[in-house]
Write a structure and sequence with these properties.
Elements (H helix, E strand, L loop, with lengths): L1 H48 L4 E6 L4 E8 L18 E4 L6 E2 L3 E8 L2 E2 L5 E5 L8 E9 L2 E9 L7 E4 L27
Antiparallel strand pairs: 1-2, 1-7, 2-3, 2-4, 5-6, 5-8, 8-9, 9-10
């Protein structure tokens, strides 16, 4: 009787544990896609509120994304020195934004304002006071023989990035924020 109870309990534990083990790759991939959206959100907020030049850097060997900032040279008292043509600041990893490991996800394509960025190592720079480009990233993960895809998008004036699954032709919920030419629509006399 005890052996039957033990076997039944082991079966119940296995039944509860197996779905978690199988779904862990899917969760890791979705978490990685969310982390990419998170780092773009950090860039949007820091670029909007700050005065420091930022960059999003991709390392294909390490399969990581990291936020970098341009540190300008300072004197002994911490005042920023004038920059000459030969002297520029130094790009350093931002200590406030952790590096994002892509894990099971790979970046399929990156576009800025509709133009595809190179597949190799790249850096997208953001200059305070200049218009930020539309950034779109298509992410792919192969999980249990099936392909899952996501799109992460940061609109030019948005304060956070959007992420949605494009697997099976999925589309983003809600309306897309886009500029509208009022003159083209014959509505140039309307206030905005």
């Amino acid at each position: 009787m005890e052996a039957i109870v033990v076997v039944v309990l082991l079966g119940v534990v296995a039944g509860l544990t197996a779905p978690r083990l199988v779904g862990s790759d899917s969760r890791r991939a979705d978490t990685a896609a969310s982390s990419v959206a998170g780092v773009l959100t950090v860039i949007a907020q820091r670029e909007t509120l700050g005065t420091v030049r930022m960059a999003l850097a991709y390392d294909p060997q390490e399969r990581t994304l990291r936020l970098e900032r341009l540190e300008l040279p300072t004197d002994d008292e911490g005042r920023i020195l004038p920059i000459t043509r030969r002297q520029t600041g130094e790009w350093r990893e931002d200590p406030l934004a952790p590096e994002v490991s892509l894990g099971p996800v790979r970046i399929d394509e990156v576009r800025t304002d509709g133009v595809t960025v190179s597949d190799d190592e790249w850096r997208l720079e953001f200059v305070p006071g200049e218009a930020r480009p539309l950034i779109e990233m298509d992410l792919v993960a192969r999980i249990e023989g099936r392909e899952r895809t996501w799109r992460v998008e940061l609109l030019p004036y948005a304060s956070e990035a959007d992420k949605w699954s494009t697997t099976g032709g999925g589309r983003r919920d809600g309306e897309r924020l886009r500029s509208v030419d009022l003159e083209e629509l014959g509505l140039s006399d309307l206030p905005w």
